[in-house]
Amino acid sequence: MPKIHSSLKVLLVSDLEMSMMFYKDVMGCEVTEWWAIRDGFSGLGIKLIQADTTGEVRPNRISTENNSPVPDIYCYVENWYVLDELYKELKSKGAKVVIEPWIDQGGRPWKEFAIVDPDNYCIAFGGTNSQAG
Asked: Is the domain covering 9-52+69-128 a CATH 2.60.120.430 domain?
C-alpha cells in the first residue's frame, strides 16, 4: 500500500497575519505563505487560511464531560522529558495554556497539556514516559 509522507491540518483563521506571527514566534514554526511547520513535514504541519467571516472560524467545542477544550490538533512527543521542555518553551513564549500538564495513570501512563492559538484552536501535546531523560 502506498504510504502518506505527511499531512497538514487546515485552519480557517480570523487574522492571517496575527496567526502567522503566533505560529512563528510562540510555536517556533517555519512560516511561509503556504504553511506553518515545526520539525519538518513529519512534525507539526498547519495550513493557515484567512476566513471570509469570523463565523467560519470554528474551533472544536468545549467537552461537557470535563469542561475542557477538545483538541483541534494533537501532537505526540517522544517522552515526558521532551514534553516538559516543550511546555516550558511554549509557556516562556507567552502561549495560553488551557490544560496544565497532567498524568493519566490508566494503562501506560500518559502525560499531556494543551494551549490555544489566537482563534482558540486547541493544540494538545502528549506522550508516554518511555526512554525519559
From this structure: no
On the 0-12 / 13-18 / 19+ scale of CB atoms within 10 A, 125 is buried
List Cα–Cα distances, 6 to 3, 11, 74, 127, in angstroms.
Answer: 9, 17, 15, 20
Note down pLDDT in tens along the chain; length 133 residues: 998 888 899 999 999 999 999 999 999 999 999 899 999 988 999 999 999 999 999 999 887 777 789 999 999 999 999 999 999 999 999 999 999 999 988 767 899 999 999 999 999 999 998 754 4
